[in-house]
Amino acid sequence: MVKPGREFVPVGDVNIPEGKVQGYGLESILNTESQIIRSHDLIGRVVYAMGAYTLYPDLRATPATGAELQNMAATSFLGDLLVKVIPGSNTLEVYYRNKDPNIAAQTTNKLVELVRDKHIEVFGESKSPMMADQVSEYGKRLNEAMAKLSDFKDKNQITNIQDQFFFIIGNRTNTEGMLKVEESKLEEIQKRLTFLKMHERNIVPDLYTDTTRGKLTDLLAQETRLLGVYKDHSRPVRNVRKELETVRAELYRYEAEKKQSGEFVTLEADLNGQQLKIANVKKSISDLDAQLADLSRKGGELNKMEREISILQTNYDLYTKRYEEALLSEEMDRKKITNLHILEAAAVPVTPVRANLKRIVGIGLFAAFALSFGFAFAAEYMPQHFTTPEAVTRHLKLPVLVAISYKK
């Protein structure tokens, strides 16, 4: 019985799914084992083990010796050997014909015994050295890739690139909010300055304002003196009070203009400071964008390194597993554990194998009648006369004087 086992799995290909035989069907496997059994090398070993004269005593009458004798015995052996595939199963039947039934049974069992050795030679080539080299190579490349990744993280101060990425995005979002607030303040300052420019007045000197205040003080003193002499509604008092109102209105106007002039100067200073602040915020945003771009580039390199490490790790694990399987396979070969199993050993037949005479005679008679009727039928329908002048000349060696066509 032949089982599709490890021998028919291409070990060198790590992408073949575990337990799946690719490229070999059961029929192909049985045919392969059949060819191994019928191989000239294996037959030669059986002949050598059993002895050419033991298998075929008639060879003693030939002058052949050595390799020639072995080849003659092997050729005769192949003629007496039959390997039969049992349809619908994974079993093979091996038949060997010999005049001596004991020799036939012993030879068949010896053949089956040596088939294991030949099978191991065909499929049991040493695979572990190749696998060991591949495991070592992938292990070396994996360590180099991991060291390269570690150096890259240390050089660029990367701990968790995703957290760093979100941290920078958060800072940028906050900075953008700050920029909007500062731009809003700048807009208010610009609007106020525009309003002041539209109502711009002459700037009043402080000295002129102080003189007006002195004049106001003198008028107040004069009002007090007049009230000591005149009544409250007298003309002199009313004139002084009218002049007081004029001076007060003028002083109020001067004070407002002075205050407005100071606010203009302050707003211009605030405007410059606000513009500088906005420029700094925009620079911070630009720096954060540069950090994001740099981090994105580093992230791409980091992802590439991690993907490479993942592929190397997968290949390393697969080749390590294949290496262990190769070692196990070689150990099984040393112990001659194969996918071949003997269901029944050859035994000495109780009765000799005789030909089925009835079947042979029946087939012969049928073939004879078929051939006879076939030849008679062909002869009946073949032309018995000459059909062309050329045929007459060719067969009779006579010239044709005239030819008249004939129609029924």
CATH class call of the largest domain:
Mainly Alpha
CATH architecture level-2 label of the largest domain: Orthogonal Bundle
Please give the share of residues in helix: over 70%
Count of helical stretches: 11
Radius of gyration over C-alpha positions, nearest whole angstrom: 59 Å
Q: Average the pLDDT over all residues and give the rounded result.
A: 77
- Tell how many strands the DSSP assignment holds: 2
Shape: elongated
CATH topology call of the largest domain: Helix Hairpins
Q: Short description, anyone?
A:
This protein has 408 residues and is mainly alpha-helical. 71% of the residues lie in helices and 2% in strands. It has a two-stranded antiparallel ribbon with strand order 1-2.
Please tell me about this protein's structure.
It contains 11 helices and 2 strands. It has 408 residues and is mainly alpha-helical. It folds into 3 domains: 118 residues, no CATH class; 180 residues, Helix Hairpins, CATH 1.10.287; 40 residues. Strands 1-2 form a two-stranded antiparallel ribbon. β1 and β2 form a beta hairpin. About 1% of the residues have low confidence.
List the helices and strands and how they pair.
Layout: H1 26-37, H2 40-50, H3 52-55, H4 66-80, E1 81-85, E2 92-96, H5 101-123, H6 128-156, H7 161-198, H8 206-229, H9 235-334, H10 357-381, H11 389-396
Antiparallel strand pairs: 1-2
Helix pairs in contact: 2-4, 2-5, 6-9, 7-9, 8-9
